[in-house]
UniProtKB/TrEMBL annotation:
Residues 96-179 form the Ig-like domain. InterPro entries: FN3_dom, FN3_sf, Ig-like_dom, Ig-like_dom_sf, Ig-like_fold, Ig_I-set, Ig_sub2. One of its GO terms (cellular component) is M band. Residues 1-92, 191-268 form the Fibronectin type-III domain. Gene3D superfamilies: Immunoglobulins (2.60.40.10). Pfam families: fn3, I-set. This is Titin. One of its GO terms (molecular function) is structural constituent of muscle. One of its GO terms (biological process) is cardiac muscle tissue development. CDD domains: FN3 (cd00063), Ig_Titin_like (cd05748). Keywords: Immunoglobulin domain, Repeat.
Length: 268
């Protein structure tokens, strides 16, 4: 039969590790892990393992235990080695945390977006998603779900309204963790920020000024299209892709509009 294993050590409340160095050539088939609850005189087999690490299951929180390990082969069982000190079983507690590979996610308008964020913590944290300070209202198009190890935001047929900053809050009895992610919906730009201002006017041209769109479509604005319409007509004419509109007729009254352009098309 094998010689006894070296003294076991505790790697966690559940895991017990041991080392064994055989002095003869018998093959070790495995190890027995036994436990003795405080107040009891009877050792019971907790688990059998083929490696030098095992998990003792079925412990009672708050109960004190002693553990011992023995090796065995086809010739029998070795003497036991006892863990140096008794162990009190208690739940492992871990503060909540997120594993963020990215903090910005993008998808083209009309496509589906799924964001899965791994969540850690023990006890299992409660996770809440908010947008613009308000809890997310789940619909058939937008919903939040949870697996044993992650939280998932799923958006079907994403629209411009889905873009923005989202906050994720994970809470358990140990603490709280907050993370922020950005969602960008790639689309044609929104309207320029007005009002459109007239900076200079003469008999045959006018200089206009405006601010970029609040929503750029998730990418750079390439240029702007300036259109004019004589108040006596209903047809708009593309005048320029700059702020200076020329070839105006003295005495005529005009209306102007400006549209932003990006790689996804002409905006509002």
């Amino acid at each position: 039969m094998p010689l006894p294993s070296k003294s076991p050590n505790l790697s966690s409340i559940k895991n017990i590790r041991c080392r064994y160095v055989p002095s003869i050539n018998w093959v070790i088939m495995g190890y027995y892990i036994e436990m003795l609850p405080a107040g009891s005189e009877e050792w019971t087999l907790s688990t059998t393992t083929k490696t030098c690490e095992g998990t003792a299951e079925g412990l009672t929180a708050g109960q004190e235990y002693q553990f011992r390990v023995s090796a065995f082969n086809d010739k029998g069982k070795s003497d036991t080695r006892v863990l140096a000190a008794p162990v009190t079983a208690k739940d492992l507690t871990i503060e909540p945390s997120f594993v963020l590979a990215f903090n910005t996610f993008s998808v083209q308008h009309g496509e589906d977006l799924k964001i899965e964020i791994p969540v850690r913590g023990r006890p299992a944290p409660k996770v809440v998603w908010t947008k613009d300070g308000q809890a997310i209202k789940e619909t058939t198009r937008l919903n939040v779900s949870r697996t044993a190890s992650s939280t998932i935001l799923a958006i079907k047929e994403a629209t411009r309204a889905d873009s923005g900053k989202y906050k994720i809050t994970a809470t358990n009895s140990i603490g709280e963790k907050v993370a922020e992610i950005g969602v960008i919906i790639l689309d044609k730009p929104g309207p320029v920020t007005g009002p459109i201002k007239i900076e200079e006017v003469s008999s045959n041209y006018v200089n206009l000024a405006w601010e970029p769109p609040a929503y750029t479509g998730g990418c750079q604005i390439n240029n702007y299209i300036v259109e004019k319409r004589d108040t006596t007509t209903v047809a708009w004419q593309i005048q320029a892709v700059s702020y200076k509109v020329t070839k105006l007729l003295p005495g005529n009254e005009y209306i102007f509009r400006v549209t932003a352009v990006n790689k996804f098309g002409i905006g509002e």
